[in-house]
Write a structure and sequence with these properties.
The protein is an alpha+beta fold. 34% of the residues lie in helices and 24% in strands. Strand 5, helix 5 and strand 6 form a beta-alpha-beta unit. Helix 7 packs across helix 8 and helix 9 runs antiparallel to helix 10. The chain is elongated.
Length: 354
């Protein structure tokens, strides 16, 4: 009920009599529905959740604090035909989550309504995680760490990146994950210089550095972790770069807290990498928020212009990528408190040589 009250308060601040939520992660955050088709209408004196017949039983078991409606066709058409916004003249909607055709339908079917569009409608309230959400994320992160430890016994020369990725997926699902957060990144040797390189048929070779980036969804919440390991002796340059990235991450972990500008946290790590002469090879932001989605607001970036919110869960993942040679990235998930950050990741970070 508290989350529906939060939505009502947002509506009041925007001068709206009702709110239409169509973005499924936000619908889930407010009322609990985990299916793939649904919308939520929040009124001052109630709420209506609409889905289709595939989710009748699921909605009854999951949805809280809203009247459940089962539509046989368009959910928007159902809302119009059943007068779920009757008498409402101003409705707040998620402008960045609707297609042009969907908004056109709303305007035609609810001609008496003034639609008040808002981008990023719930991102700030969703970003601040509750203790229960943090605990779920901790469990998801621990599952990913366990898979990492198991994978270390699997990796060897001659195995392909795709074979390692398949093991990562299998072991997560076997361990209880609902699904992967994203397609695992297994990038060896020169492929490691691609920050989001997809697993290929390249075989692991002695001396390779391997970037391993993966996560899962457990109890709805995402994990995300990157470690870089070596298969055999990687050489002095790789060891030196690894140490720079590790020092950059440690500097950011020690500085991270709620209330600091996002750009300042990014610069804390970026400065270490720049001072070592690798600044042009750190080609992305320091991190991102996560929760019900693996990529949420806030971004942790030198281009961001906002402060980081209390109890946000964010990744800290500096990297250096040397084209044609190798890449190194190290990623943890932390929760931001007023004076410090709590690290949800405990997997070892010394350079592992297999």
């Amino acid at each position: 009920m508290e989350r529906i009250s939060t939505v009502r308060q947002i509506a009041q601040t925007k001068g709206a009599e009702a709110v239409l939520l169509t973005f499924l992660p936000d619908v889930r955050w407010v009322c609990g529905f985990t299916g793939s088709n649904g919308l939520l209408i929040v009124l001052p004196d109630g709420a209506h959740f609409i889905t289709d017949g595939r989710y009748t039983t699921q909605a009854q078991s999951e949805v809280e604090h809203a009247t459940i409606h089962i539509a046989s066709g368009s959910l928007f058409e159902y809302a119009a035909e059943n007068g779920l916004l009757a008498g409402r003249t101003s409705v707040l909607y998620q402008a960045d989550k609707l297609t042009v055709s969907e908004f056109d339908l709303l305007q035609r079917r609810f001609s008496a309504v003034t639609w008040i569009g808002a981008d990023d409608l719930l991102v700030h309230v969703v970003a601040s995680k509750s203790p229960e959400e943090i605990e779920r994320m901790r469990r998801a992160q621990h599952l990913t760490e366990r898979v990492f430890e198991e994978i270390l016994d699997v990796i060897r020369p001659g195995l392909t990146e795709k074979e390692i990725a398949a093991e990562i997926v299998y072991r997560h699902l076997k361990g209880g994950a609902e699904r992967m957060s994203f397609e695992p990144i297994v990038a060896s040797g020169p492929n490691g210089a691609l920050p989001h390189g997809r697993p290929s048929s390249r075989k692991i070779q002695p001396g390779d550095m391997i970037v391993l980036d993966f996560g899962c969804h457990l109890e709805g919440y995402a994990s995300d972790m990157t470690r870089t390991v070596a298969v055999g002796e990687p050489g002095e340059e790789a060891r030196a770069v690894y140490e720079v990235v590790l020092q950059a991450q440690q500097a950011a972990l020690e500085s991270a807290r709620a209330g600091m500008p996002s750009a300042d946290l990014d610069r804390t790590a970026r400065r270490v990498i720049e001072d070592a002469g690798y600044g042009s090879y750190f080609t992305h932001g320091l991190g991102h928020g996560l929760g019900l989605q693996v990529h949420e607001w806030p971004r942790v970036s030198h281009t961001a212009d906002y402060v980081l919110p209390l109890y946000a869960a964010v990744t800290i993942e500096p990297g250096v990528y040397l084209p044609g040679k190798f890449g190194v990235r190290i990623e943890d998930v932390v929760v931001l408190h007023e004076e410090h950050a709590v690290n949800l990741t405990s997997a070892r970070k010394d350079l592992i040589v297999l």
